[in-house]
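TL;DR need structure tokens for one chain.
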Amino acid sequence: MKSPQSKGGAARAAALTREQRSEIARKGALAKKAVAEAGDLPKATHAGEREVGGYVIPVHNLDDGRRVLSERAFLAAIGAKGRGSSSGHRLTRIVADPIIKSFFSKKLLVDIGRPIAFLSLTNVLTNGYEDEVLHEFCISMLKAKGARALTTEAQIRYGEYCEALVFAFSRLGIAAWIDEATGFQRDRARDALHQILDKYIADHWAKWSKTFPDEFYENIYRLKGHKYDPDSAARPGFIGRLTTDIVYARLAPGVLEELQRKNPVMDETRRRQRKHHQWLTRDFGHPKLKEHIGNVTFMMKGAAKWETFYRNLQRAAPRLHETTPFDFGED
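>> reply
TL;DR here they are.
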């Protein structure tokens, strides 16, 4: 007796035209041939899934160290609905618009046109893109959005998805996003955390310099319903706690804990001897901090209530070691 699945497959096959069946057979033969000849292709060592906006997105770690999303996963991540017969061509068409294209670098356009071929864990030939291609794509779409160059319904949707993703990812964050899904992070070398801290944390504190702009504090006061005095350097205690939560707890794995270890609270005053940012490296940690502060300030400026801002922050840049599901259809 045939199963419901086999009956459904037979019905779908019967509905295909001769040309469609021929094309499917041709692609299947090419795929088998490519797999047979793919001895030198990179192979996935870890694989997992992330749910974004109702889509389940496959992500992979390759044996050459690269992190990739499949072509279909890439389209789903940027809000492209439905399934086309040729995912790669569809992505190319998205950036073919002359106006939008002007916001993309030549290198990025080349990368989009040349997806990576790799073998999945089940030895299936797959095409995909490195994590950095997704990051750069989102940045470019945000530039187009800022210039009001996104005009169609689809383009506006891509811009909205990319805006949410760019807050969720940093160059380190997107790697952690993939590694958590695939399980690769559990198999990393034991010194991986030390490598991160070496990038972020300096051996000795640096001279104080103004790092948090006035508008960062001004918007916290506004959203919390307090009057802001730009001429006063005194900050109430809750400002420090909020800064720890919305900034330092979201930078990179282990950074907050290491800052608290190097810069402990003094027993007499219950204050810290230095500001946390004085312990960040000048060439990496400090720029990453300022980038995050800029993103957080931007999100606060666009919110009317603290609860709205914090919900969006949790969705876009959750506290490390906390899993927050994406939900792009909420608003």
